[in-house]
């Protein structure tokens, strides 16, 4: 669970999870049900893409919240993720997503970097979230 209250594999906020049809309460929290949460997260990502029309903007909205991103879009005359004034965590979020996509798409090309020791070293970098460093 994040400091902000996001939880589960997809780090969904309680309100977002409920809007997506997941049960979130003291006894049951479906954000931790991998199948239900994955289905909800996919629907949420598709909905954000329908609204924003750009996967980089979707990544920013998923991380910082669609409200913050929509305010950014209203303030600026561009829709360029790379030129937006975003919180630090969100600025690095897209790069992490792209890194994971690249490594998962071509694991053989990165096998020398995927040992436990190198993963631990990577997780110690300051741009990796502190929660992820603690998990290593």
Percent of sequence in beta strands: under 5%
Average of per-residue pLDDT values: 84
How would the global form be characterised? globular
Report Rg: 16 Å
Note the total helix count: 7
Strand pairing plus helix content: what structural class?
mainly alpha
Compute the number of strand runs: 0
* Biggest beta sheet summary: none
Unreliable sequence segments = 129-136
**Order of SSEs, N→C?**
HHHHHHH
Helix content: 55-70%
| C-alpha end-to-end distance | 16 Å
Please state the oligomeric state of the protein chains shown.
Answer: single chain
Q: Explain this structure to me?
A:
Helix content is 57%, strand content 0%. The protein contains seven helices and no strands. The chain starts with 13 loop residues before the first helix and ends with a helix. Mean pLDDT is 84; it is low at 129-136.
Task: Give keywords.
mainly alpha; disordered C terminus; globular
Provide a concise account of the structure shown:
With 136 residues, the chain is an all-alpha fold.
Please outline the helices and strands.
Layout: H1 14-19, H2 34-52, H3 55-64, H4 66-75, H5 88-105, H6 116-123, H7 130-135
